[in-house]
Please model this.
Amino acid sequence: MKCPFCGHLDSRVLESRPTDDVSAIRRRRECPRCERRFTTYERVEETPLVIIKKDGRREAFSRQKILSGMLRACEKRPISLEVLEDAVTGIEKALRELGTGEVSSSEIGEMVMDELRHIDEVAYVRFASVYREFRDLDGFLEEVQRILSAKSGEPKEYKGANPAEGEADSGSQQRVANRSAGAGEPRGGTGEARYRFR
Model:
């Protein structure tokens, strides 16, 4: 191993040990010429993961980009960073296990929503309202209704946002939607670009 200080082409290993997550070997080395010490890491070479955007552009997979989107969706929610990091690790592992080397941004978005659905319902609605680009109130309320139905285990039919269509149900659904929409600001401002992986 070339010395980074004097450029000597040899060095000797003083100590070798795995990193905390056992994903690499840390080696402490010493240059026989200048006698200075430095550290190197030996890691398994992974196949690059490429994301295909909706417009056809390709870019390298970014773990941090996914984590940032999930953090914004979970703002002011009782969710620890550790929980979100574990979720991102699971997403990355699943993507690499596909073995294709390329994956669409829409697939990643669906995986993120699936993780958030199990972590926090409010965060899920925040993310979904931007990612799925609900174009009217009915689409947003239908998504909220799916969450409520999944919790109760009793599928219910959404009857529409028009008060003339199912007055008994629309009032409570509207209140639930208003609380979720207010918490996550699903439309407008800079929020629309915050969670995208396109």
The beta strands are 12-18, 24-30, 37-43, 50-52, 58-60, 102-104. The two ends are 41 Å apart (CA to CA). Confidence is low (pLDDT under 50) at residues 154-194.
